[in-house]
Amino acid sequence: MKIKHKKQTYIICGILLVISILGIMLLKNNEPRMAGHAVIQQETIQAKQPTAENALESLLEAEDDLKEMQEQGLSTFFIQDTLLKAKRKFIGKNKIMLESLMYGRKQGLKKKYLEHLTKIYETTPEHELEDLNYAETIKLTDLIKEKKLQAYKIIDTLDLLKEKEKEYRAEGADTIDAVELLGKAKKEFKEERYDNAEKFLKQADSGLETAHAELLKTKEIWNSINFLLEKYGIYLLISITIITIIIHFIKKKVIE
Amino acid sequence: MIAIESFKKFRTKDIITILTLSGIWFLINTIINKFLGMQTGFAVTIITATTLMSFTVLLVRKAGTSSLFYLIGGILNWKIDTLGATGLNQLISLAVAGIIFELVFLILKLEIKSVQIDILTGTAISAATIPITNALLLSPIIAKNMMIALINITLIGFFSGLIGGVISFLIWHSIRNTKFILNFEYKY
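Above: the input entities. Below: the C-alpha cells describing the complete assembly.
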C-alpha cells in the first residue's frame, strides 16, 4: 500500500515535470512571433505604432542607415550618438522587456540584435540607463533616417552647385563669394551640421544665380551696343560728323 | 480555510536555514549570471529560486518563510539581473512573489497523494508574478502594449516555478524521514 502510494506520488511529480518542461520548450522554440503557441492572436501592427516590434525594426533600419553612411565615408558621430540614445530608450532601465522579446523567437537577425542590445545593457552604467520609451526610439530612428536623407541631399546639391559654379565661372561670372559659401557648406557638412550646410548651400546657389544674372545683363548691354554699331554705325558716324560741322559753324558765327 | 497552524514564531534555526538557503541562491545566481545567456539564465534562476524557496518552506513550514527568503535573496542579489531587473525593482517583485506564495499557501492547503499542491501552486504562481511585477514597475503602458510577450514570459515563469516546486518536493520527499530532518523539525 505504502509502495503504491509512493509510486503515485512520483507519477504525479513526473507528470507535472513533463508538463512544465514541454510548456517551456513550446514557449521557447516555437514562434508565431514572440507569443509561442501559448497565445495565438491576430495582431495588426500599424506602421509607426510605438510597439516593441516596430521600435526594434526601426532600430535595425537605423543600423542599416548608419552602415550605409559609413560606407559612403560620411562623418557619423551624431548618428551614432542618436542611435545609442534610441537603443537605450528601447532597452529601458531593466532587461525584462528584452527577455520577453527574446523568448519564442527563432535564431535570426532580430534575435541577434536583441542579444547585442543585451550586451549594451550590461555594459551601460546604471546611471546612464534611460526610461523605456518605444515612441522615443522610433522618433530617434526617424531622425536618423531624416539626417541620412538630408546628408544625401546635401551631397547631391554640393555636386550640382560645384558644376554650376564651374560653368558660370567659365562663362565669366564673378563666383568668388559663391565659392566661399560652398567651402563653408562643405565644412559644416563634414562636421555634421547639416542645417547650417543647407543654409550655406542656399546662399551659394542664390549667389551663383545673382552673379550669372549680372553676367547676362552685362552681356546683353554689350550685345545691344554691338547690334547698334553693326546696324546703324554708318548713320551714327554721319550724324555725329554733321552735328560736329553744324556746331563748328554756329560757334564761328557767334564769335564773329 | 486558512492554515492557522502555520502562524508560528520563527526559531533561530529557521532563520539560519532561510539565510543559508538564500545564500546558496545568491551563489548559484552569481554563476548563472556569469555563464548563462539571458533566456536560459532567466528560466534557470526561477527554477533555482523556487526550488530553494519551496524547500525552505517545506523545512520551516511557517507563514512568512517565502517572503523572508525572497526578501533576503533580493538583498543578496541586489546587483544581479538574471530575473530581468536589479536593485529595488527586483526586491519589490520578489516581495510581491513572496506575498502571493504566502496567500496561496495559507488559503489552498491541498495535498494529493502526499504531493503538496498548495506549495507547488503557490511556487508556480509566485514565480509567474515576477516578470509581471518587473514589467509593471518598468512601465504599465508598455506592459499593456506588450501583453503577448509578457504572457509568454509569465508562462515560462509559471512552468519554471512548477519545475522548481516539484524538484524541491522530490528532494524533501526523499529526505523527510532522515534523522537530520526529524531533528530539525522536532528538536529545539
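Note for the figure: Residues 194-255 of chain A form the longest helix (62 residues).
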